[in-house]
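BON domain-containing protein
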Amino acid sequence: MMARAPSESCAAARSPCRRSTTGGIEIMRLLVRRLGYLVMLLAVLLLLSPPKVNARETEASARLSLEVNQGRLFPLTVPVTEVLVTNPEIADIQLTASNGLFVYGKAPGRTHVMALGAGGEIAFDQSVTVTRDLEVISELLTEQFPESNLTVQSTPGRLILSGYATSPVQAEQIISVARGFLGEKEEIVNRMEMLAPSQVNIRVRIVEMNREASKNLGINWDVLLNPGSLAIGLITNRWPAVIGNQLFPSSANSGTGSSGLLGYRGSDGSASLIIDALAEENLLTILAEPNLTSRSGETASFFAGGEFPIPVSATDEQVTIEFKKFGVILDITPTVLSDQRISIHIRPEVSEISEIGAVVVNNFQIPGIAVRRTEATIELASGQSFAVAGLLQNQTRNLVNEVPWLADLAVLGPLFRSTRYQNRETELVIIATANIVAPRDNVAFTNPLKNYRPTDMAAKLTTGRLAEPMLAPEIPSSLGQEGLTLKGPVGYIY
């Protein structure tokens, strides 16, 4: 059996052989098309991808984040000869012996660190951001003050505290704890709200008892070379140690007094002597009753007195005038410790112009100031009072008026001498009452002139009244809530 030639096989099966050739061509075209797409895709990816960088450039493009007092060590492949830091107060660096760079954070903020090699090439280049570990601060504050609901935020150089505090003292404690996480130049922003009332009303009574006693004993002479007749009498309401012709009237007045007058008066002259046997006692009370209201931790001041000028040298040989205060000066700083506890720092001062310590400048006498001052810090409950006493001052003076030479005689000397003894004793007492107060509606307060009605002229002449009496139902009660006094001897508490 003879085999068929290939041409005969293809001739016998012409159509199948033609389909196989056409299918191979289509497959080749498909492969070429897909390869073209792949090449185009690779080209696009190459265009979109960043340029190839080495490990050193990749390290330079990164950002470094650190916390305060935290650090990281970076090994370097190039020996470093120079290191640059834009802000060493935020982060700093240290080179190690094994050619490493240690970067550590010092304060919150952002800075830049760069290390250069011997040829100027960049061995390290990073932006460093330093943050504060707020989680540790928040956990500690929440543990110590769970009722305050505190939140902590951080900004460069500042720590912001938000939440609530039951009292200013607790707020100071919270700030003190948080300050331990800050540097010397960093500060705390207090945004906490007070749950307790933070205003204190202080009623102060300042009393100065001035007790003065003076005694005069002696003889004062008033002689004019003019003989005349004799006059004997008493001088009344005479100021001690003042002798003059006005004390010797044309005819001696009789009456009650404390000094005796013996005189001789004539047409040609007169002679008189006053026998001093005078004793005086004066009692003076000075009362100041200020009513001060201040926020917790702030100072309230009171001043009642005056000012006197003091010349002060200035430039170009000019003199300016400054004024110095004297009188009653009071500074009070209340601090609310809790709902019913108050700490008060009080600084009262009472001063007066005195000749003691006076100086004379350019024929101008500048007086001195006698000052009594005390300073104390006490703690009491709301509504309680305290007193500061014992500020005593004692002055003793002896004034002697005498006739020269005659007063020095052994036996007759006292007849030509008058001695005035003066003793002045003062005592200062400060009494203060503190109350924690809160603002109220306007309806809760009473105007002292609300029921005031002036009288007409006829009523003033007949009754002597300057105002109509107030009706009983319209008189406000002198007691408020919990029996607190609203009206005192010098006015109302507003």
